[in-house]
Amino acid sequence: MARAVQAEPFEKVTIKLLMLGDSGVGKSSLMIRFTNATFSEQMMGTTGIDMRVKDVNIQNRNVKMQIWDTAGQERFHSIARTYYCGAHGIILTYDVNDRTSFNNIPNWLEDIRKNTKEVFILLVGNKIDLHKVVSDNEAKEFAEKASIPFIMTSAKNDENVQDAFMNLIETILKSGIVIKPEKMRLKKKEETVKRCC
């Protein structure tokens, strides 16, 4: 069994996360709520790829989170697949108010499993501040059958957003996946020697 990487002093562990799911489910809003603690009703849909970085301290490690937000439209799927490489975790999101976005989750899972080997997936039901079309029980049953954890969030109300990201990071760190530390170089103090002429 692989052992978890123990980060040495002054090293930063880098973890790559992908935001996947249909267009309009709130992937960008979740990412920005987590990284910037802000929310906008006028959020524009992602075109192509967007990436944000957040540093967190967890399990006595300095973790640099690279969060890649991908466009959900079909025409951008081939672009998104190029970013699967090297991903440690995926936040797979649907809108609880959009039945189609939930019905498409199996297609996303199939695509993920075709294009990744060892990656952790978290199913997220977003926009719980709105009327639910997809019931909690239905989503939980699906997650259990798919053997993936599940959480419900509201980017607007900042409900469970921190938990979603941090729980996934904790799972990745505990898993034993080898994560290459990013060494932080320390500037050595230069000794100045005064010479007499």
UniProtKB/TrEMBL annotation:
The keyword Acetylation does not apply. It comes from Stentor coeruleus. Gene3D superfamilies: P-loop containing nucleotide triphosphate hydrolases (3.40.50.300). The keyword Lipid metabolism does not apply. This is Uncharacterized protein. PROSITE patterns: ARF (PS51417), RAB (PS51419), RAS (PS51421), RHO (PS51420). One of its GO terms (molecular function) is GTPase activity. InterPro entries: P-loop_NTPase (IPR027417), Rab (IPR050227), Small_GTP-bd (IPR005225), Small_GTPase (IPR001806). NCBIfam families: small_GTP. Keywords: GTP-binding, Lipoprotein, Nucleotide-binding. It comes from the Eukaryota.
